[in-house]
Amino acid sequence: MNNFFAEDLTLQGDRVTEQKQALSDKTLKINLNKNIYGSFAEIGAGQETARHFFRAGAASRTIAKAMSAYDKQFSDAIYTVEPDGRYVTENRLHKMLNHEVRLLEERLDEADNPNRIYFSYANTVATIDFAKKFKGHGWVGIRFQNEPKGAFNEIILHIQFKENDVLLQQRTLGTLGVNLIYGAFYQYHDPKKLIYHLYDHLDKDQLEIDTINFSGPAFKEVDNRLMSLFLVKNGMADAVMFAPNGKNILPANTLFRKNVLLLRGSFRPVTVVNINMYQKSLNQFLAKNNLLLENTAVIFEITLNNLLALGGVDEQDFLDRADLLCAMGHTVMISNFKEYFKAVDYIWNYSQEKIALTIGIPSLIEIFDAKHYANLSGGLFEGLGRLFKHGLEIYVYPFLNEEEQIITSENMDLHDDALKPIYNYFKDQKQIIDIHNFEEKNLKIFSHKVLQKMKENDETWKADVPQIVAEMIEERKLFDHI
C-alpha cells in the first residue's frame, strides 16, 4: 500500500514538473523573441502570470513593467473609480489595458526599437472567499500588436473558478495567462486553436471560460458568437449569451438579481406560436408574482443537443437562428443543458429571484419521464426535486393532438400513471400553470412544417412567422429558402 501511494505521488510530481517545463518553454520562447515587449498588471490573485516569465529567464527582453495595485485607493488613483464601486468588472479591465498601453506608447521610444511589437496583459479577479461560498471569478485580457507600429488587437475573456483553494486558483490563473499571451502572438491567425490551447496544462474542472471577445484588425473576420459556440461545443463553458444587438454578454451580469423566464426551443425558424407563448406566459408570470418587467430577464435558449439534431453543429444555421431572435429584441442563450433542472441550477447560481419555464405539452410529458434521469442516483425523484426546489413555475402551452383535441396540463397523459400523485402535487402548488388566452388557430403551426412549406414554395409559410422573420428569411435566403 505504501509503495502504491509513493508511486502515485511520484506520478503527480512528474506531471507537475512536465507542466512547469511546458509553461517555461512557452514563456522562454516569448522572452527570447527580442521584438515582443510589454507590461503586466494583475489584481486579485498575485502576479502569477508575470512570475512565469521572470522564472523562465531573459525576462528583461519581454517585461517593461509588472505591477499589482492591490490597495483600492492606489487602484482608484491609477485607473479611476468605477461608477458601481466594483473592481472585478470588464470596464475595469478595459481601463487597465487603456492605461498600461498608453504608458507604453508614452515612455518607450519606437525609434530605438523599430521592430518591436508591444502588448499589455491585465487581469482583475476575485478568488474564493474564506467561507468557500463564492468560488470567485475574473476578467483577463491582452491588448497587443501583431506587427511593428501596427494597430492594437484585443482578446478579453471572463472566467469562473471551480477549485476550492486560493493557491490552486492562483496557479490556474497564471497558467491561463501564459497560454493567452502565447496564443496572442503565435496562434492569433487561428482563434479556435487559440481558444483550445487556453486549456493547455489545465483541466475543465479547474475553470470555466464563459465569455470571450476578439477585436482589432487581426480579428476582423472573426464572429465572436461562433467563438462562444466553440466554448460550449468543447465543454469550456456551460452556457453563453448574446444580447439583442448580437454581441456576447456575460451571463452573470444578465441574470444577476433578475426574475428569469426561460423559453427553450429549436427556433428554426421562430414562429408566431413561439412569440405567443412568450408574450402570454410573461404576462401571467409577472401578474401572478407581482413582478416588474424591468426586473425580469427573458431568455430564449437553444441547447447544443438541439443544434446537433441536424447531425452536427452547423455554424451558419446557428447564426441564422440567433440573428432572427436578436433582431426581434431577444436575448439568446446557447447551453449544454440537456435536462431542464441543469438550466434552472445554472440560473439559480446568479439569481435567487423567481424563475419560470415556458414549454409545450410534449416537453412537460418528457419532464415526468423517468428515462431522462437514469444517470442520477435518485432517478426521477432527484431530477424533479432539483427542478422544482427553488419554487420554479412552469407555464404550459396547449397542444392539438391528431384528433383535433386541445391537450392542456389538466387532461394530458403521463408515460407512467403511477406518477400522477407527484404531478398533481406540483399542480396543486401552482408550479405547473396553463397558459391562457392562447391563439387556438395557431396550434397547428410548427417550425418543421414551416420549413416544409418553404421547401414546397407554399407562400402561406409567411403567415406562420413574425413579419420581421419572414423578411429576413427572404432577404438573406435563410434555411435554404429559394
Can you characterise this structure?
There is one protein chain. With 482 residues, this protein is an alpha/beta fold. It has 2 domains: 2-222, Maf protein (Alpha-Beta Complex), CATH 3.90.950; 252-480, HUPs (Rossmann fold, 3-Layer(aba) Sandwich), CATH 3.40.50.620. It has helices at residues 2-31, 48-56, 72-79, 90-107, 166-186, 191-196, 224-233, 251-255, 272-289, 304-307, 315-327, 340-350, 361-367, 379-388, 420-428, 447-455, 467-476, and strands at residues 36-43, 63-67, 117-126, 137-145, 152-161, 207-215, 239-242, 248-249, 259-264, 296-303, 331-335, 355-360, 393-397, 399-400, 406-407, 432-434. Strands 8-7-11-10-9-12-13-16 form an 8-stranded mixed sheet, with helices on both faces. Strands 2-1-3-4-5-6 form a 6-stranded mixed sheet, with helices on both faces. The chain has a two-stranded antiparallel ribbon with strand order 14-15. Helix 1 crosses helix 2, helix 1 (2-31) packs parallel to helix 5 (166-186) and helix 12 (340-350) packs parallel to helix 14 (379-388). The N and C termini lie far apart (70 Å).
